[in-house]
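User: Please write out a complete single-protein record containing the residue sequence and its fold in token form, without commentary.

AI:
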Amino acid sequence: MNNKEKGNLGETLAAQYLEKSGYEIIERNWHYSRLGEIDIIALDRDTLVFVEVKARKTTSFGHPFEAIDDKKYNQVHSIANAYMAQTEVKFKACRIDGISVILSNPPEITHLKNLF
């Protein structure tokens, strides 16, 4: 399984996890210009949630959350601002979450709300 396939599987598992937790998935892989993309955009009741997903087969080379550094957070923040300026989705609050997926059997999913 290459990195793209791991990423896609991780995002699918994360989206399923969020839906089971009561979230409504609004967008997946939302691109903004050359700045990048947000993996998942969802509604948690009246809160718009931007989710960065990181997936790895194991933690041998570190936990997936270690890949969400300040640079990545700032990129997601900038794209989230662009999305909010364009969307017609109604929301009262917003936040950026992270989900890590260890692709073991069964997968280990960790959800951190309100990163940084």
The helical segments are 3-20, 70-86. The first strand starts at residue 24 and ends at 32. The chain has one domain: 3-112.
